Amino acid sequence: MLIFAIQKGEKLILLTIKNNRIMKKLALLFACIFAVQFTALANNDKPIQFDQLPQASQQFVKTHFAGKDISMVLVESGIIEKTYDVIFANGDKVEFDRKGQWTDVECKRGGVPAAVLPKQISDYVKNNHKGVKVVKIERDGNRYDVDLANGWDLTFNKNFKVVDIDR
User: Fold this and answer.
1) CA neighbor of 146 nearest in space, from 117, 113, 119
2) I need a surface site. Which of 29, 53, 100, 128 has the fewest CB within 10 A?
3) How confident is the model over 122-150, as a mean pLDDT?
4) In which band, very low, low, confident or very high, does the pLDDT at 32 lie, cut at 50, 70 and 90?
5) Which residues, 6 or more positions from 16, have their beta carbon under 8 angstroms from its beta carbon?
6) 66: closest CA among 132, 113, 136, 108?
7) Res. 141 pLDDT band, cuts 50 70 90
8) Is 2 a residue whose pLDDT tops 70?
9) Residue 111 in contact with residue 121, Cβ under 8 Å?
């Protein structure tokens, strides 16, 4: 049984719903409304100035992407966390977490700067995919996902051991 209280003027109207089928439909309706609200709040991207990035992000860009023109800097404010995107004129993109640490570096044309790659990953690529550039690297706490220019996708664990290879 589901009971709704609706106030109309000074009167209080109580609705009781005993039909399980109707209750299930109402529960689904409320879940959908909640999901739409949650999605609307989570998708909150807005442009910011470069100097509004966390200091660590600014330093990373100045060190590894010096001289590259920045097209846009975005802050993505979600329900739980905040992330930052720096998009360059040549199409390169870097994503940072709320603390300013990189989480995703994508450089489709020129490859990810060598200094960004952990040494173990760089060595693996040099030894097993000679002359192939890393075009994207993502890190997510316990793993690194690496996309190579030859179409191979590599996954490394936190100890830099290969745990998956896909083409």
Assistant:
1) 117
2) 29
3) 96
4) low
5) 1, 2, 3, 4
6) 113
7) confident
8) no
9) no
Alpha-carbon distance 153 to 19, whole Å?
52
Residue 135 burial class via C-beta count within 10 angstroms: exposed 0-12, middle 13-18, buried 19 and up: buried
Contact 101, 74 (CB under 8 A): no
CA gap 69, 113 in Å, rounded: 16
pTM value?
Answer: 0.74
Provide Rg for the chain, Cα atoms: 24
Where are the chain's structural domains?
A: 2-42, 45-166
What is the rounded CA–CA span in Å between residue 3 and residue 139? 48
Helix, strand, coil shares of the chain, percent, nearest 5, are 30, 40, 30
Quote the CA–CA distance of 108 and 70 in Å, as a whole number. 16
45-166 maps to CATH 3.20.20.140: no
Sign (positive or negative) of CA dihedral 104, 105, 106, 111: negative
Q: Name the token pair of 67.
A: 């001289």
